[in-house]
Request: fold
Amino acid sequence: MQTKDPIGVFDSGMGGVTVVHTLHRLLPHEDILFVGDSKYNPYGTKTKAEITVRCISICDALIQRGVKAIVIACNTATSACVPLLRERYDIDIIGMEPALKPACEAGPHQKIAVWATNFTLKEKKFADLMQRFENEHTIYKEPCPDLVQLVEQDRLDQKDEIDTALRAHIAHHPDVDSIVLGCTHYVFYRQVLTEILGSRVRLIDGNEGTVLHVKDLLAQKNLLNSSGTGQIEWKDTLAGKEALCRSLFERLEESK
Reply:
């Protein structure tokens, strides 16, 4: 592996674009190869075996392209099979999990809503994470599959529909200190959530922490690229979705 090799990133669909955006912002010299698996979206309603087959297929393709690390930009896929992927490949495989720990570190006796897919919330990986903190904090699980599909169907401009959907989820646990955005798709709603909630509720996602972990791992192996302008290559298993990837990335750029 060489410093000029790209970083591979994949997701069940468009949510991983938010991770690519953070990667590009914090590691601007790195080339990135993104694969969205929109043909098989959503992962959150599939079995662990089905998700694992898809993740292996995508990782095999990324390895063939010569990536130096792979980021699973999907909490659901991470929950399903990250240990298996790490055993299968000899490069760093970086997964994601809901950023519950930072939410709990905000202070004693926090009330926290974790928004995620049904699969993430019911898996042992999240149960183990939640068990570490639930004696000292109140943690609510909030499945939000509809928020994934609004992104996948390119409906982020439907402001009334978005507002109604977000307010419905907020109403289930209205008095929380933090909302953990435990799916990369939900990062697209950060600005609207801030407009609705103001500063009374902290919004926490795992993107920046994940990217900083990628940076550390690459630095340890002397694989950080320190020159040039990083290029992003968009791929998707559903024809025509690359254009939506670019559009969503540009939306994030405009909201900086």
In short: DSSP finds eleven helices and nine strands in the chain. The chain has a mean pLDDT of 94.
